[in-house]
Amino acid sequence: MLSHGLVPSALFLCVCVLYDRHKTRLVRYYGGLVSTMRNLSTISFSSTLANMSSLGTSSFIGEFPISVGAFQRNSFVATLATLGMILGAMYSLWLYNRVVSGNLKPDFLHKFSDPNGREVSIFIPFLVGGSDRPLNYQRKKKGKPM
């Protein structure tokens, strides 16, 4: 549940930084931001990976046992859920690729700057919470098996 609160919040924060800079939410106006906003691109990529429940993220710890249990209980419903996860991952990667990669569009976007110190300090808890390391550390510390 911790991951389901942190990961979407980090993605919304990335969108808010982009909206604050460019005053538009239209995806077609974005492109090539990796060349001008490297830090935000890195934060967006790690948040996108966590959104897809990739290995090494806190989302994977919750999603994988749920998926295994769902397949054991009702494979048809679990297959539909898996299809939804795959489509969601495909859309997340498409959106990230569309916004960050490609050609820069200076006709639509004028102000390019990475997140400032205040915004980076807001991102830090999301990056720490998006990793599975703090959760595993607590389990090892208490002596419980993983």
From TrEMBL:
Q: Which UniProt keywords apply?
A: Membrane, NAD, Translocase, Transmembrane, Transmembrane helix, Ubiquinone
Where on the tree of life does the source sit, at the highest rank? Answer: Eukaryota
Gene Ontology CC terms, in alphabetical order = plastid
UniProt keyword annotation of Plastid present:
no
The protein's Enzyme Commission number: 7.1.1.2
Q: Per the record's keyword annotation, is Kinase included, yes or no?
A: no
Cross-referenced Pfam families: Proton_antipo_M (PF00361)
Record-annotated membrane-spanning stretches: 6-22, 43-64, 76-96
What molecular functions are annotated in GO for this chain?
A: NADH dehydrogenase (ubiquinone) activity; NADH dehydrogenase activity; ubiquinone binding
Which InterPro entries does this one have? NADH_UbQ_OxRdtase, ND/Mrp_TM
* EC category name: translocase
Domain annotation NADH:quinone oxidoreductase/Mrp antiporter transmembrane: ranges: 1-84
> Which terms does the UniProt entry file under GO BP?
ATP synthesis coupled electron transport; electron transport coupled proton transport
Q: Which PANTHER family match?
A: NADH-UBIQUINONE OXIDOREDUCTASE CHAIN 4
- The entry's protein name is NADH-ubiquinone oxidoreductase chain 4
Q: Provide the species name.
A: Lupinus albus (White lupine)
Please name the taxonomic classification of the source: Eukaryota, Viridiplantae, Streptophyta, Embryophyta, Tracheophyta
